[in-house]
Amino acid sequence: MARQDYLFTSESVSEGHPDKVCDRISDAIVDKYITTDPFARVACETLVTTNRVVVAGEVRSAKPIEQSEIEATIREAIRQIGYEQDGFHWETASVEIYLHEQSRDIAQGVDARDNKDEGAGDQGLMFGYACRETDALMPAPIHFSHQILLSLAEARHSGSVPSLLPDSKSQVTLEYVDGKPVRAAAVVVSHQHVEAASQDDVRDIVRPHVLNVLPDGWMCDEANFYVNPTGRFVIGGPDGDTGLTGRKIIVDTYGGAAPHGGGAFSGKDPTKVDRSAAYAARYLAKNVVAAELAERCTIQLAYAIGVADPLSVYVDTHETGRVSEAELESALRDVMDLRPRGIREHLELNKPVFARTAAYGHFGRAPDADGGFSWERIDAVDALRAKLG
After folding, report:
1. Which residues in the chain come in under a pLDDT of 70?
2. Best CA proximity match to 207, nearest among 192, 193, 188
3. Cα 213–217–218 angle (5° rounding)?
4. Of 279, 295, 291, 288, whose CA–CA distance to 365 is shortest?
């Protein structure tokens, strides 16, 4: 029997967090290549520190992109985040680019040829998850953590809170009773600010955003509402801490409420199953829950490099399923082609839609009209119900 009464915590980090700056740059480069060639291959990592950006990785494209264009893409990503500080500025930062051709050994395993379908870009295991804790079918702690920072970011970008700067983090601890979240036991927000703003000033700015995000009556007491607990957060972003692509994999997914296979998403084109199969697993889990076949659903997919078909499809409905897991595993393979090509085509991933995923979570977002967040659609509900009666 699963534990029913407990506290659970998840965190989020904003687009201005050093690691998220790197994710944004890496995904902006993916979008740049896919705009030029929808079938481009990109594996791109970014490092940032005080007024310096270093990008390295492997690419392959039908149309080469000049280094000056890549640099312009990097600077524009930083500008959009909002960094115009002495320690990190989109105009003055040193930019180093080390992108080279994709390995032929990897390419031969991934490319379709003769009678061989496109293979997975690497081995690995990926998880998808959905539950009924929020309308987005996401775990509540990570969902609210994201929404708090997203609300503050929108206010910062609008110019209505000029004392806030780009770097921030949130953390929400929820109390669960009978397995369901009922209130916030603690909320933590650390937000970079201008020199003139006091801790109380920042607290007053942050409070209404938390209140607007949490359901009515869920706010924790003042003693457990922590804003900039150290008292000061002026030096931030890459000037305060080095950032790297792919270091916030739990923030990107389910906040620790579900398993993670270990592979990061950002900087990777959709032939990399670390990314595309994780999106497919979320898509299927969300549709299972939306179809009312389970209250909670975890899906694991596993792949071998160069092999098209998944090695395994595993479903766990956590004793909430209305059909057996074995039936679901069979139905999911019928509803969606889980080979890399099938995932890309079903979710329409050969589009420049990845930079927008770099902050505030890859999951629980509304699908965009241009194909962004396509894995959040619930358009497989009827197919699943038909398969499973």
Report:
1. 1, 103-116
2. 188
3. 60
4. 279
